[in-house]
Structures are given as C-alpha cells and as structure tokens.
Amino acid sequence: MAKKQKYYVVWQGRQTGVFTDWKECEAQIKGFEDARFKSFDSLKEAEEAIHRNYWEFVAKKEAGTSATKPAPASVGQPIRDSIAVDAAWNTATGDMEYQGVYLRTGERIFLQGPFSDATNNIGEFLAIVHGLAYLQKNGSNLPIYTDSRTAMSWVKKKHANTKLVLTPRNKPVFELMQRAERWLAENKYSNQILKWETEYWGENPADFGRK
C-alpha cells in the first residue's frame, strides 16, 4: 500500500512555504530555534494554512471534535489547563526529539532534539520529566498528558528501563536519562501525569504530525 502524501507548511524556518517532501521540510526547521510547522493531508489545506496564523492550527480543536468515538463518562474530557508532551522517532535515521505544549492554546513550551540513535520511549520519558521540571520551576501544579503508558511507568519507577545500547552517537541521550532519573530521585511533585486518550479525544496535542 502506497504511503499517503503529506504536505508540510513551514511558517517559521530557514525558508517558509509549502513543502511536499519531509526531508525538504526538515532542512528548514532542524536546528532552527522556535521553528513553526505542521503537516496537512491535502495541498489545498496546506496552501490555505500558509496564509493564516500558525497558532490556529497547533491549538487543537475542542476536545472530542477529532475523536474516533464519544468518550464514556469514565474517561470524560481532557483538562484544558494542562500541558501535553510527546516524542517523535525517525525510523530511517533513529533520530528522536520531544516537545511540550500548553493544551489550551497549543503554544509550544519546549522542544528538544533531534538526538541520534535513541528511541521513542526514551523521548516520551524525557518529555514528561522535562515537563515536571518546567512546571516546578514556574511554581505550577498543572497536570501533564502523555500517550505513553511505558513512559508513565518509567517515571513512576524513577528509572528509564531501556534496552538501548550506549554508543558514542547516543551518549548525550544517556546523559539526559541519568539527569532525568536524578531529578526524579531528588524532587517531589504534585502534578498529575495523565494518559491522553487518543481513541476518544483525537491526536495528542503535542504530536509532531508526521504520521
């Protein structure tokens, strides 16, 4: 089955515009501070989006509008005053990056990476701990949403239980994991870490949009 064509809009990067190839888009945003971009399913959507405000598209639709089915009472709706975190892993290069966004507005709070020879689970773990440290620094008790139960488990155990092998290329990632584990061991937090219910609420607001 052929892979579905994606169209990438870059509002802020080395060059702006609509790109039909991810590699070309990546060249405009990789390493560019506060890059702003998003993928679209059709060229028409992308061409319309480039003439509009970036925040209109990263601020997700109200909860439930993009969900696959209605959320039961036991699930409810996401808390709008919260942050969401997610990671992206490139299957071709092994590069990983992660980010956090404020759910109510879609504004990006932090973006880290890309890191070489990492994994998605590591990215999800680092994203949660980064979010916790960020909220503590700002005196905030906002909850954090993630769609990774594995990362939630690692944070709870204060240990990244990865089978990834240390290499010279991914040494920076291992150093970040050690820092994250140390932070968890030395700090207390009251922020809830909650599961983002993709099945009912639609895509994680911090998703990189490259699927």
From TrEMBL:
What are the EC numbers?
3.1.26.4
| One GO CC term, this protein | cytoplasm
Per UniProt, residues of the RNase H type-1 domain are 77-211
| Entry keyword annotation includes Magnesium | yes
Q: What is its main location?
A: cytoplasm
Q: A single Pfam family, by name?
A: Cauli_VI
**InterPro entries, per the entry:** Ribosomal_bL9/RNase_H1_N (IPR009027), RNase_H1_N (IPR011320), RNase_H1_N_sf (IPR037056), RNase_H_bac (IPR017290), RNaseH-like_sf (IPR012337), RNaseH_domain (IPR002156), RNaseH_sf (IPR036397)
Q: For this protein, what reaction is catalysed?
A: Endonucleolytic cleavage to 5'-phosphomonoester
Could you tell me where this protein is found in the cell? Answer: Cytoplasm
Residue positions binding Mg(2+) 1: D86, D207
The annotation note on the cofactor reads: Binds 2 metal ions per subunit. Manganese or magnesium.
Top EC group: hydrolase
Fetch the Gene3D superfamilies from UniProt: Ribonuclease H-like superfamily/Ribonuclease H, Ribonuclease H1, N-terminal domain
Give the family this protein belongs to, as stated in its UniProt record: Belongs to the RNase H family.
- The name this protein goes by in its record: Ribonuclease H
Species annotation:
Rhabdobacter roseus
Q: What is the lineage of its organism?
A: Bacteria, Pseudomonadati, Bacteroidota, Cytophagia, Cytophagales
